[in-house]
Amino acid sequence: MTELLVAALAGVVLVVVATVAVQRPEWALAGLCLASPFGLFYVGPAQLVTVLAIAVIAVMVAARWSRSQTIFPANGLSWAALLWSAGVLLSVLFSPYWADAGLFAVWLVVSSLLAVAVTGIADSRSTLLPVLAAWLVSAVVVSALGQFIKPPTVATATASYGGAVISGRATSVFSQPNEFGTYCMLMFLVAVAVALRSRSWLRWLAVLTAATCGYGLIQSYSRGAWIGCVIGVAVILLVEPRSRRPALWAVGFAAVALAVVSAAAPSLPTVSLVGERLSTISDPAANPDDYRPALVAEGVRQFAASPWLGGGPNTYPLEGSTSRSLEPTVGGQHPHNVVLLVAAEQGLWGLLATAVFAGVVIVSAFPVLPVVARGLPGPAQPASDWAVGLVVGGVAGLSAVLTEGMVDAPLRNALMRSTVWLALGLTVAAALVARRPEVSADSPEPALTRSA
What we know:
Blueprint: H1 2-23, H2 25-34, E1 42-43, E2 46-47, H3 48-66, H4 76-93, H5 98-121, H6 125-145, E3 158-160, E4 165-167, H7 177-197, H8 200-220, H9 223-239, H10 244-264, H11 269-279, H12 292-305, H13 316-320, H14 338-365, H15 370-373, H16 386-404, H17 414-434
Helix pairs in contact: 1-2, 1-3, 2-3, 2-6, 3-5, 4-5, 4-14, 5-17, 6-8, 7-8, 7-9, 7-16, 9-16, 12-14, 14-16, 14-17, 16-17
């Protein structure tokens, strides 16, 4: 009797939640963002972030169907996701490891559909704003946790091999520090760009996010993420004229702060570790345990063996452990290059689909970028249009992820993978929203409710 009562109560709660979610789907998407700190906990065979992503996709479909709209939004992202998903499924079908590749293929398809769902849900400023706010709040939590979650066997960060290897790096909720560094890098760039184009509470939230993610980026000691961040900042400076004066002030302040800290506490671990870590960027062979040349060569071999569809999602380590491998004793999980990883596992079809996604982002964002928009006919962009800031931050963040992807491939993690696809969807959604201004430069920030 007790079990029946609990089941009935759970059913009622589920119906209520589903009803609210269908009526206000943006809150389901915001809930996914807020759950990010717990996203890697398992719910049955899948992690929470993946389960919630599937729920968001279902909510989007139900909400659009209830409004007599097409199930998927009619935009380039939907077609890109279709091309990507077809390639993923075909790579599984022709993979010698189809049973192992199948589950990861599902996650890849879900991730691409999550990006589509973002554009199908956050299609106005009133629906996009709560998602952006929730995303920034979750980034504050995840980056702040990085200061407390480190490998249990190491109390403080220590360097060896001249800084090529650092033990005790911050990981936050992720499984390894490079993933944490990538996350902080992406969210730092988004927060900086949003802060430049927003006001009142949203600006302060963006500033807080940038501060916590910036510090988390340092504590990750991820060289790839640092390099990506430099490229991302360069993108912001290039496309957002409003960023150039604040950048000069920020560089001056950072230089003074670094000089003061170095003089007052030259033995401070963070200062010395960052210096040692930077000195190894030009010497990738400084780490005697780094087998990247062999891993890259194996990735090229796998691509050459199956150039059209690849060996199947998540099969690089399986094929890498066979007698055909060029690195059978290394046990690498990826070739330290995202493009080569996609080529090896999904072939030319996967590379084409990736290029189409990039093209959709570029075509959607290009006319919204401030450096381009000011030269186009029509009314000037509002100075405080946070949607434009999100576009700039998204383009900079995705550029940084691609840059880091040339030297690493930290996207196996479900939370990191979902965050990148979420960033892609939000960038396109913000670009579509920014093309149809709904607020003037003098109006306050929209409330976190849907307009009537």
